[in-house]
Amino acid sequence: MTLPGRAGGATVDNAVQMAEELAKSEGFTTCMAKNLLAYSLAEGGAATQSCAMESIVENFAATDGSFASLITEIVAAQAFTKRAAAQEE
Length: 89
What we know:
Number of helices: 5
Strand content: under 5%
Number of strands: 0
Distance between the termini: 49 Å
């Protein structure tokens, strides 16, 4: 199986190889960060399209690459820590 270009484009034979290749892919990391940030903010909004995403991905690249590190970078981001309270209708 060949992964899409955005996921590195590598040819893999099994799920372990696929996971290893995806872990190296900046596109996959960006996608995970964007979706986790949107989920954590309970919205898709501007935060997932902003400099916050760049900062999260850049900071995550300097970590051990674990899922826990990605979560840590998301909750440390200003988009998460400085979010506005939900408005009651």
